[in-house]
Amino acid sequence: xxxxxxxxxxxxxxxxxxxxxxxxxxxxxxxxxxxxxxxxxxxxxxxxxxxxxxxxxxxxxxxxxxxxxxxxxxxxxxxxxxxxxxxxxxxxxxxxxxxxxxxxxxxxxxxxxxxxxxxxxxxxxxxxxxxxxxxxxxxxxxxxxxxxxxxxxxxxxxxxxxxxxxxxxxxxxxxxxxxxx
Length: 181
Known about the structure:
Layout: H1 3-31, H2 37-63, H3 76-80, H4 92-124, H5 127-162
């Protein structure tokens, strides 16, 4: 590998590490918001995966002679714009929906990041980093699908909570008085 190629690879690894750190923190925040234990569990579970992946990426960066920069990931603006608790939501179910939308966007941004990292690693012949990036990409794609699968039912639940006179009878949910409808 040339010096320039290795430097670029190290910068991409650093970006991925910083993105994982930021998103892990955000997922843990999301897990403490809303009222849906399935969604909260999914957020926590994926946050744990990201913590482990961050360690793997950090080890690989160190093997390549790099160190974390302590800077900000290129995904920082996206992760930072995810709906903070209570800013837009009027009910917990709406907060859950906002968090799912934010998580879906971030997951797909991470997919792009790992596609770039795997392509670069393949181009310079770094099969170890390529393998790490491909595994991360596959996991991110699967997680994005899982997050997306929550959207239809959680949208209806939020709708039912925000429009109690227009309940969708196809969805079992709580009404404002916490009764099952």
